[in-house]
Amino acid sequence: MKKFKTESKKLLDLMINSIYTNREIFLRELISNASDAVDKLYFKSLTDSDVQLSKDELAIHVGFDEGARTITISDNGIGMTKDELDKNLGTIAHSDSQAFKTDNAEQQGDDIDIIGQFGVGFYSSFMVASKVRVVSRAFGSDEAWAWESDGVEGYTIAEAERAEHGTDVILTLKENTDEDNYDTYLSEYGLKDLIKRYSNYVRYPIQMEVSKTREKPKPEDAGDDYKPEYETYTETDTINSMIPIWKRKKSDVTDEEYNEFYKTNFHDFADPARTVSLHAEGALTYDALLFVPSRAPYDLYSKDFKKGLALYSSNVLIMDKCEDLLPDYFNFVRGIVDSQDLTLNISRETLQHNSQLKAIARRVEKKIKSDLENFLEKDREGYEKFFENFGRGMKYGLYTSYGTAKDVLGDLLLFYSAKQKKMITFKEYVKAAADGQETIYYATGDSVERMAQLPIVTTVLAKGYDVLLCPEDVDEFCMMAMSDYAVPDAADPDSLTAWPLKNVGGEN
Ligand code: ADP
Ligand code: MG
Prior knowledge:
The protein has helices at about 5-15, 25-45, 80-90, 95-110, 110-120, 190-200, 255-265, 350, 355-380, 380-400, 405-410, 425-430, 450-455, 455-460, 475-480; strands at about 1-5, 60-65, 70-75, 130-135, 145-150, 155-160, 165-175, 205-215, 230-240, 275-280, 285-290, 310-315, 315-320, 335-340, 415, 420-425, 440-445, 465-470, 485-490, 495-505. The protein is of the alpha+beta class. The chain has 3 domains: about 1-215, Heat Shock Protein 90; about 245-380, Ribosomal Protein S5, domain 2 (2-Layer Sandwich); about 415-505, Rossmann fold (3-Layer(aba) Sandwich). Helix 2 (about 25-45) packs across helix 6 (about 190-200), helix 4 runs antiparallel to helix 5 and helix 9 (about 355-380) packs across helix 10 (about 380-400). Mean pLDDT is about 85; it is low at about 95-120. The structure holds adenosine-5'-diphosphate and magnesium ion.
């Protein structure tokens, strides 16, 4: 037996022993892996002429055996070699998450959040299973291998049989206890419900044998008093709707469906703060569905964080995270762009110079900006919370763009007003400014409380001018990059007056 790596083991412990109750997501995770595997094979077939494949054959199958207490999730995707089984299932996927986890475990003492931040993945199966067996055959290989584990110490890998390429994940469910009943997962109804709820938009059919009833044919010699008889039979049904949510009209989709789609596809356990949909027709036709998370992912401010939107061409994934679709200062936005006008076998290099993509990116940026402005106007409390999560990135973006992004970001930033004792925008600062004032004053330091007491600040306040107190390290650079804020004249909104930003000084 091979032992799990320490970090994997810790995550497994958390997963199995945590108070986290939303166990049912294990199926979503396994189906999403199956769908990824099918995607990979399909994608290969587009770029590799040796792979002959028809899209109709690709499917995910979910089955269960009540007697054996097993659930099996099968796909005919790309499969895994022996090495890949070892590497992909023996180690936690996100290698740098361990440090984060221990840091945060102490700070938050909150298992739920930690698990939520991971996108749990394959290991979530151990929340419901006492044993997991993965039988896989890599595409193009004639060997199959079985990975097996009880999720405690380690795993084994042994030779196995599988007729075709693809993967079966076989979960042996835990025994029921007084508190926990796993039997709902061993029923057609229970599994169907989970598939519809969590995996409805998976692009490939998720099939199940379902039992149905039908009337038996009427015997020829049936008399007048014949009563119809019924029989049950089983049939393979596709459970998910597959129609991508972004292709549907916004008015036909409920908030709940959007939220579920977001959580399933972007591995978040919280609903998004904002959902923005965009349909464009004309020279360039595309749909976009964008989400602002309600909290920052754990690695947002790490150098490994990758921004980007998923890019599809006619429902087929081209790229998981297309960076060029998002400016750095909106790196927190998750979502997808789907355009029938993009070709599938577009490479990363050509994408960068793709003018269609640039046009989409510009529109996406505008749309995010206007949605955030709307957010700020209509739901101040929500926006302030959003800003706590993502404001730093926007300020940083202003700085790294050397101020060129100030038209986009200038109205989205919040700073603490010494006078009003709350977070305000530049616009609000100007609106509340004293007569004759034409400068925006700010101070920098570590603590808002201490800055408020500084003589340089109280002096300015005494003159009737407000001072924005900037405690974050990025603030000073951000203010310098911003340098001024353009204010429309009351009489003639087309003519702008630039209010310079002036640092009155600071703590340091
Ligand atoms: P993630 O999906 O976020 O990468 P997971 O823990 O869910 O993390 O899965 C780990 C890895 O195992 C995947 O990245 C993939 O390489 C591999 N894997 C899991 N399930 C399958 C499958 N059904 N077919 C092929 N590879 C799989
Ligand atoms: Mg996964």
